[in-house]
Description:
Blueprint: E1 9-14, E2 17-22, H1 28-35, E3 42-49, E4 53-54, E5 57-66, H2 68-85, E6 91-97, E7 99-102, E8 106-114, H3 117-134, E9 137-143, E10 148-151, H4 155-158
Parallel strand pairs: 2-6
Antiparallel strand pairs: 1-2, 3-8, 4-5, 5-7, 5-9, 6-8, 9-10
Amino acid sequence: MIGVTPLPNTTTQSNSDNFRISFAPLSLEEVYSLADSPANGAIVMMSGTVRQQTEGKPVLYLEYQAYEPMALNIFHQIAAEIRQRWMDVNHVIIHHRIGKLEVGEISVLVAVGCPHRAEAFEACQYAIDTLKHNAPIWKKEFWEDGSSNWVSIGACEQTENAC
């Protein structure tokens, strides 16, 4: 078979990690629950939401697209790298939305469960920063003035406000 048909709600899991790309809204409660463990002393979550403006331009909505098999592979790689750097991490959860998202909707959730808060914060930041730089997920911003623009993977490296 040539080509890949994207699945509407793709979820993969390895060990005690969970990764998802979905058209459906993301759940803070579900992600927290997946990261929870009696061995944790901390769960750090990062929730990325659609903001109402970018560079002073009012945003109507965003559209996300992903090359899902590769993006999920990157999520797995991020978790493996986290486990090499912070060996006490119990859970790494990465869920990302695709499709049309309105202002205020959650586009990405990352959670890390770990015995200690410092490592949980560091690992969570590493996960979201690495995802933004490496995962084949693109967003198109649609502005109030009728214009739109694709934000590419590399844009995160060029400006802090792009992602």
